[in-house]
Amino acid sequence: MTDPIKTRLIALLAERSAKRGDFVLASGRRSTLYVDCRLTTMHPEGQLLIGRAGLAALRATGWPVDAVGGLTLGADPIAYAIAHASALAREAGTGEIVRAFTVRKEAKQHGTGKLIEGPFLPGDQVVIVEDVITTGGSALKAVDAVRAAGGEILGVLALVDREEGGRQALEAAGLEVLALVTATDLQPHLPAAAG
Questions:
Q1: pLDDT tens, 74-123?
Q2: Closest CA relative to residue 178, chosen from 101, 86, 82
Q3: How many whole angstroms separate alpha carbon 16 and alpha carbon 14?
Q4: DSSP character at residue 36
Q5: Which CATH architecture group holds 50-183?
Q6: What backbone phi and psi angles, to 5 degrees, belong to 149?
Q7: What's the Cα-to-Cα distance from 29 to each of 32, 134, 160, 193, rounded to whole Å?
Q8: Cα 106 from chain centre
């Protein structure tokens, strides 16, 4: 049986975020697939679908999640969508609230000098979220920041796994990885590359 939320999320990502061509990624690698998740994660329907799918994926693990977050900017709308979905679910009497936080790329040079913003607390059981996993580097940077601030990492949740070795790198670091969508899921829904 197909999941209508996942089906629509794949369609929205394919329509708004994914492109075929020749691209240089943030990692420096070349790829024939480019995925700009922000075009979906910042879209109202994308927020709704990601919040529901992300929360369902987390609840299915049985993990006692206190908070979700990751490296700004890609992780931010995903974490906020999941937190919002959890508040709606709690209002309906199903489950606990999951808080969202943001990990800065570097600590502020003013005020409290925080690296983690939002209602993160030392001792929280955390799932790191990521928009796209390619090498796993952004997620690992967020993991290090959360651990240094006293958080316990339960795993990593990605919106899209490009299936280019990032999942394996995270798993080699002892992290369980969940992906809402994979590159394999997206491929059949993409038009041919322009050219």
A1: 999 999 999 999 999 999 999 899 999 999 988 766 656 689 999 999 99
A2: 82
A3: 6
A4: -
A5: 3-Layer(aba) Sandwich (3.40)
A6: -95, 5
A7: 10, 9, 17, 18
A8: 19
DSSP one-letter code for 165: S
- pLDDT tens-place string over residues 14-45: 999 999 988 888 778 888 899 999 999 999 99
Domain boundaries, the chain: 50-183
pTM exceeds 0.85, yes or no: yes
| Whether the bond into 180 is cis, omega within 30 of 0 | no
* C-alpha distance from residue 191 to each of 33, 144, 195 (Å): 11, 38, 12
Handedness of CA 81, 62, 142, 91 (dihedral sign): positive
Q: What is the rounded distance in angstroms from the CA atom of residue 48 to the CA atom of residue 8?
A: 11
| CA gap 103, 82 in Å, rounded | 16
Q: To the nearest 5 percent, what fractions of the chain are helix, strand and coil?
A: 40, 25, 35
SS3 at position 61: helix
Helices vs. strands in the chain: H and E counts, helices first: 7, 8
